[in-house]
């Protein structure tokens, strides 16, 4: 009996579980390790924050999915992996040995150079902690205790989340109006998108009276304020962080080859570049000689080839290549049930784009709620 160990319940691993459930391997023992039973789907998180979805709409329950795959589910953190010994250590000190392992543990926003970040800002990842902090903040809003809210990060994730927060708070009709601030160290918002997307979002932010600071780097956070590299003090009763991706710290002592940003180096088969029996996907991994963003779209696309290659490796068969798509369709929600589509140099927007996005997201989630029915 061969042992397959899945560390993390990310977008790629939920597809691995679905595929192994649909096509079981009788001689393989599967273990899934994840600190949370419910794994969030990134595409629906802004809608959850905005109030368009409930918790169940935007989360995949790993327990029944693991059961469908015939996998043992351990709800606990992995804290270390020893690639040379083919073993992983869990938060309770227990050791799991494996013949083949895959890592899909996501990322967190980097906070390098930001003093006071741990005490005075709230990262949007890990999602469970963020959602708990968001619920607590809504109580403060109801009490009239939040006059200003800041988001640090001018990519799609930061802009989407700020607009979702703005929509939710606006719908609460509290007596005290909240001021919203968006801060980015890049010259413009959404630098990886077409000018039309940036122009539409800039108009939308202006219409919503969001104060935007571009080419501005936050260097310090204190209670009630953020400070920038040019000496500006920005009042913020609550500050959130969506500034890209940083690798989980525990990977650094694993013996696994990492790139300069501490992400796992993987090859075209989604394998570690040094350890053939170790695979990785999602935000925690980066393919050699390939440039693509840390985005849930890529993690989702990695799911099917990862599942296939794990199966083939267990059987001793040749592996298939995964090639990241050169461009992806981005559907960026703007708080209310309205969205912007971004495809290369093309862009368009409207309420119908949000309905289209909603259909795509719900179809994706349905695959993991009743995986035995999906193709």
What can you tell me about this protein's structure?
30% of the residues lie in helices and 26% in strands. The protein folds into 2 domains: 188 residues, FAD/NAD(P)-binding domain; 125 residues, 3-Layer(bba) Sandwich (FAD/NAD(P)-binding domain), CATH 3.50.50. Helix 1 crosses helix 8.
Record keyword descriptors for this entry.
alpha/beta, 9 helices, FAD/NAD(P)-binding domain, five-stranded parallel sheet, 30% helix, 375 residues
CATH architecture of the largest domain: 3-Layer(bba) Sandwich
CATH class bucket of the largest domain: Alpha Beta
| Order of strands in the sheet with most strands | 5-2-1-9-19
Unreliable spans? none
The radius of gyration computed from the alpha-carbon positions, rounded to a whole number of angstroms, is 21 Å
Residues in helices, as a percent range = 25-40%
CATH topological fold name of the largest domain? FAD/NAD(P)-binding domain
Summarize the structure.
With 375 residues, this protein is of the alpha/beta class. The protein has 9 helices and 23 strands.
Task: Please describe the topology of this protein.
Elements: E1 2-7, H1 11-22, E2 28-34, E3 38-40, H2 45-50, E4 59-61, H3 62-68, E5 71-75, E6 78-82, E7 87-90, E8 95-97, E9 100-103, H4 117-120, E10 122-123, H5 127-142, E11 148-152, H6 156-171, E12 179-183, H7 195-207, E13 211-213, E14 218-222, E15 225-228, E16 233-235, E17 238-241, E18 264-266, E19 278-280, E20 285-287, H8 296-315, E21 330-334, E22 336-343, E23 346-350, H9 351-369
Parallel strand pairs: 1-2, 1-9, 2-5, 9-19, 10-17, 11-12, 11-17, 12-13, 18-20
Antiparallel strand pairs: 3-4, 6-7, 7-8, 14-15, 15-16, 21-22, 22-23
């Amino acid at each position: 009996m061969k042992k397959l160990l899945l560390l993390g319940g990310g977008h790629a691993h939920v597809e691995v579980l679905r595929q192994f459930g649909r096509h079981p391997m009788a001689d393989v023992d599967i273990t899934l390790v994840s600190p949370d039973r419910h794994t969030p789907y990134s595409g629906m998180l802004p809608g959850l924050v905005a109030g368009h979805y409930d918790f169940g709409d935007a989360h995949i329950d790993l327990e029944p999915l693991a059961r469908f795959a015939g996998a043992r589910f351990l709800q606990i953190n992995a804290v270390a992996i020893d690639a040379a010994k083919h073993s992983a250590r869990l938060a309770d000190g227990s050791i799991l040995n494996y013949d083949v392992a895959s890592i899909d543990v996501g990322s967190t926003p980097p906070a390098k150079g930001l003093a006071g970040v741990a005490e005075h800002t709230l990262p949007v990842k890990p999602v469970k902690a963020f959602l708990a902090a968001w619920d607590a903040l809504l109580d403060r809003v109801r009490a009239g205790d939040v006059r200003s809210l800041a988001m640090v990060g001018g990519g799609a994730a930061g802009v989407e989340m700020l607009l979702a927060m703005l929509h939710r708070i606006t719908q609460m009709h509290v007596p005290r109006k909240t001021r919203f601030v968006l801060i980015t160290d890049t010259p413009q918002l959404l630098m990886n998108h077409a000018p039309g997307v940036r122009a539409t979002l800039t108009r939308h932010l202006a219409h919503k009276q969001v104060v935007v600071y571009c080419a501005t780097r936050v260097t310090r956070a204190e209670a009630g304020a953020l400070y920038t590299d040019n000496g500006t003090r920005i009042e913020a009763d609550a500050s959130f962080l969506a500034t890209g991706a940083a690798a989980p710290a525990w990977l650094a002592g694993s013996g696994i080859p990492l790139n300069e940003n501490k992400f796992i180096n993987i090859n075209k088969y989604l394998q570690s570049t040094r350890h053939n029996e170790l695979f990785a996907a999602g935000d925690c991994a980066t393919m050699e000689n390939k440039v693509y963003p840390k985005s849930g779209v890529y993690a989702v696309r990695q799911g099917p080839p990862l599942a296939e290659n794990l199966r083939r490796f267990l059987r001793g068969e040749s592996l298939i290549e995964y090639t990241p798509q050169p461009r992806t369709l981005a559907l960026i929600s703007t708080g209310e049930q309205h969205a912007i589509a971004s495809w290369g140099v093309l862009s368009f927007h409207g309420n119908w784009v949000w309905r289209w996005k909603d259909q795509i997201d719900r179809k994706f989630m349905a695959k993991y709620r009743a995986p035995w029915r999906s193709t």
